Amino acid sequence: MRSELSIATAAGAAALLLTATAPGSATVPGSATVPGSATVPGSAASPAPARNLGDPDYGVCRGTDPRCYHDWGNFDPAKGHKLLVYSRTAGPRHAHLGTPLAPGLNPPLNDDNVAVKAVIELGEENGFAVDYTEDVSQLSSAGRLLSYNAVMFLSTTRDALDDAAQTALRQYVRAGGGFIGVHNAFGTEYNWPWYEGLLGNANFYDHGANQPGTVVTVDRRDVSTQGLPRTWAFSDEWYNLVPAPTRVRVLAEVDEDTLARGVRGNLGHPGHGDHHPVSWCQYYDGGKAWLTTLGHDVKAWTDEPMEGDQHFTRHLLGGVRSVLGMAPFCR
Description:
InterPro entries: Class_I_gatase-like (IPR029062), ThuA-like (IPR029010). Residues 113-321 form the ThuA-like domain. The protein has 331 residues and is an alpha/beta fold. It has helices at 48-52, 114-126, 142-145, 163-174, 193-198, 309-324, and strands spanning 37-38, 46-47, 62-63, 82-86, 129-133, 150-154, 178-182, 204-207, 211-217, 231-236, 239-241, 249-255, 276-284, 287-292. β1 (37-38) and β2 (46-47) form a beta hairpin. It is globular.
């Protein structure tokens, strides 16, 4: 993975809590939703929210309005920028994660731990520090997490957090912390509503065949999409989501018509029709979150050639930099 992006200065976000309009809800002016509607083959078109199982607010301020962010001064750019990568698996393990890591912080890596190595390399080339772990005890303290500008869940699976880590992550985000969810971060903590909201009101449901497709860059203003082509080829599992994201800024989608082997998932999900999101961003409960379902193929994390991998790398790096505070977020 290579990138030539330079480091930019972060733009501050206003810290203004919104006024609740009903118990447990808040108005978020200008919040975006997934555009358009989805068509199920053989049936009439239906709005995306019908497949979303509603649009809950999770009892927090969420959406694209920076007033949902808590700018409490916990992250001083003068101290540098630091990312914690968490890749614990409590179920199936993606090949790009390789051999499970030993306990502790920054244990020795093996040749097959290609995704973690790739993120470390991105940090070395772009001016941010990277720690990594699969030890849940390293996430058990909000105070410890606050030494990081962002936490990345990299293809974690199922119940990757215990009670202490769940509490710490929530307190960290509420203190203005950043979250980056990559690929199977969507197959994690299924039964925790707050985490589902952190993902943008989204969860992995199933996927079709791992196959080539065309990514459509929906919003080219964001740091993570600037410089990307309007469309670009890539191969992935193309996650189907239930629910699917709402009140977020959709950054990229997959064109389902380009999936030669179809989009229907192994559990019967028919796909999302004209608007099948693969990347988005939002403010959530005081913090920032940048999310992508992309990143399945091992080649996407190595120097082995794969069509579109340079665009994926640029996209991911831009998202990381924006959450770290090195560039404007979700604009």
